[in-house]
Design brief:
Elements: E1 3-8, H1 14-28, E2 32-37, E3 51-54
Parallel strand pairs: 1-2, 1-3
Length: 55
Amino acid sequence: MAKAAVVFWSGTGNTEAMANAVAEGAKAKGLEVDLFEADSFSADKAAEYDAFAFG
């Protein structure tokens, strides 16, 4: 199964809401998805994922 990382930063919650929607849509298409706030994701983790969404 393909694995995706959704990485976001949100000051007011709007981008977080969109990141959650992106993650749910990707899951509905069969992807395994991990959601990260920007400060908890690093380039070291990139090799673990097949796809990325940044917001």
